[in-house]
Amino acid sequence: MAIRFGILTVSTTCFICPEKDRTGPELEACIQSAFPDCQIVFRKIVSDVRADIRQVLIDFTDAGTCDVIFTAGGTGFALSDVTPEATKDVIEKEAPGLTYAILAKSLGITEMAMLSRATAGIRKQTIILNFPGSVKASIESFNIVKPTFFHAVALLREDASQVTLDHNRIQQDFQPSKVSLLATARRPRKSLYPMLEVQEALKIIKEKLPPMQKIEELLLEDSIDRVLAEDIRASRPVPEFAASIKDGYAVKASDGTGLRYVKAVVAAGDAPDNELGPGEACRISTGAPVPRGADAVVQVEDTILTEASVDGLQEVTVNILIEPKLGQDIRQVGSDIAVDEVVLCKNRRITPSYLGVIAMLGFEKVKVIKRPCIGIVSTGNELVSYKDVLKPGSIYDSNKLSLLSLLKSYSYEAIDCGISKDHPDSVKLTLEKAFSKCDLVITTGGVSMGEFDLLKQVLEEDFGATIHVGRLNMKPGKPTVFATLSNNIGKINKAVFALPGNPVSCFVTTLLFVVPTLKYLENEMDFKNWPKVNVTLEHNISNKDARPEYVRMIVLANDEGALTGRSTGNQISSRLNSMVDATGLLLVPGHSTIKANTSVKVQLFRTLNL
Ligand SMILES: Nc1nc2c(c(=O)[nH]1)N[C@H]1C(S)=C(S)[C@@H](COP(=O)(O)OP(=O)(O)OC[C@H]3O[C@@H](n4cnc5c(N)ncnc54)[C@H](O)[C@@H]3O)O[C@H]1N2
Ligand code: MOO
Ligand SMILES: [Mg+2]
């Protein structure tokens, strides 16, 4: 948050001879070193005239251009000292705590502090605070109150995220970041990180990932889309009893065609205890247990009724029209699943049919591979939640929602770990909170070459992280970062993907690096990445950049079942609409064109569009 300061020296002497004003310039330097990204909106001098002081204060508060105005001078007992009176004329609310804090601390330095009549208050959204006129006293006063300004201004601006940040900082006894924003002139003008190829990076990520894999047991209903951590071995046969495949009559095959006496009825769910004798039949339903003595089922369509009961309601005899074969229309015990058969293999993802099979075997719970807890952090002073009101210069944080839902579409739940400001303390605090909850943290923004791109520095300097991947030869996604953190016994236990802020760049790198990592951590995908299919291009596709480009493709199946593909249009990294409807990525080498009708291999990350 950039605070906007104004400095008003009140002194008739300095007004006549401005070069005598030392307090104004010294105060300005002090403010700038305490708040490096602040803005000094004005530095003025007025004489000790109440109306003149009042006018400057009104001008700069009512225009809404200043968050804080410091006056220096005119606060003592001299007859001409009227700064507090002019201040009281304009303020709408008093802020006595500020002057009290200055007085209390200053009394420890000099008892002359008692002679200050300084006042403080708020007009509209601006804080006005009187400092003494001497350089030393004004700077001492500034240093006393400066820790409160971020928070005070955030409250006045109704900047909820900064207020939360400050509350956390106060509550957690926060240690500021070791990274400084001050030495911009000394920043490197070339990236310090080697440019890696995508395949190289995938290999490194695979090698350096912390060992996260553990097993957990879940209720069947909670295990959909998870990866099996055990073979599912049948402890019972399916079916468990010989069951009829048809609605018809259970018979002895050796009786052949001809009349049968209908001895009993067996419906699904019955447990028949009678035994079929020669010339007898049991009426039977699909799925019902075949009674002892029967060895074939004849479907009702292959029979006729030959005799009914006196009331005409019950079958007494039926004629079997077709020669029954031994075992006909009977599912034998264990014919679907035999006892001890490994019916589902570990490391496979649980689909609805897996769950059905597991349920058939009577399991209540299943062992699956535990997933890392994933957190997503957005970074950027410009970001506002899409649920909040947009301010001038701000944009909606779209990355958070698109990445949370992209992961969800592959069944990974991630936690929203907030929006960090482009300030080292804010990045540090937001990451600290994310790491306290999550094993894998994904951030977006702040990884390129700008002075406010702080992710790599904060990760390295504040968290001792090792950056394994710092730059990639790809478009989009060049500044992609992969880093790991160790715990206090030196064991790697956290991983970070710090992705570029451009909406397409973080989307594509999530597809190419984060999702494969998550699948790999679940043993499902050996970093082979998305399957490739042959696609015929509908038009020429050019890449003007030197970096290989992952062009977003719409892939369609024509009536003959052949696949054709077209690009989603302008591929600039900010244009997230270039992801819309894309189901595949086509890697186009740097400075090259692939001609229409060429057959190319497209990596499919989704099923085809209908
Ligand atoms: N001097 C250089 N500048 C840049 C380079 C470079 O190599 N040298 N690389 C460019 C490339 S490539 C990319 S990609 C971007 C990456 O930038 P950062 O990761 O540092 O991200 P920011 O600067 O914070 O933001 C970039 C862009 O994205 C917008 N953004 C950020 N977060 C969000 C969000 N959550 N939702 C929506 N939009 C977001 C942000 O406003 C910026 O417009 O750097 C190039 N620069
Ligand atoms: O690498 Mo950036 O992601 O092209 O815009
Ligand atoms: Mg940047």
TrEMBL record:
MoaB/Mog domain ranges (all copies): 6-152, 375-520
Superkingdom of the organism of origin: Eukaryota
Catalyzed reactions per annotation: molybdopterin + ATP + H(+) = adenylyl-molybdopterin + diphosphate; adenylyl-molybdopterin + molybdate = Mo-molybdopterin + AMP + H(+)
Cofactor(s) for this UniProt protein: Mg(2+)
Pathway the protein takes part in: Cofactor biosynthesis; molybdopterin biosynthesis
UniProt keywords, alphabetically: Magnesium, Metal-binding, Molybdenum, Molybdenum cofactor biosynthesis, Transferase
GO BP, sorted A to Z: Mo-molybdopterin cofactor biosynthetic process
InterPro entries from the UniProt entry: MoaB/Mog-like_dom_sf, MoaB/Mog_dom, MoCF_biosynth_CS, MoeA-like, MoeA_C_domain_IV, MoeA_C_domain_IV_sf, MoeA_linker/N, MoeA_linker/N_sf
Protein function: Catalyzes two steps in the biosynthesis of the molybdenum cofactor. In the first step, molybdopterin is adenylated. Subsequently, molybdate is inserted into adenylated molybdopterin and AMP is released.
NCBIfam families tied to this protein: Glp_gephyrin (NF045515), molyb_syn (TIGR00177)
Protein name, as recorded: MoaB/Mog domain-containing protein
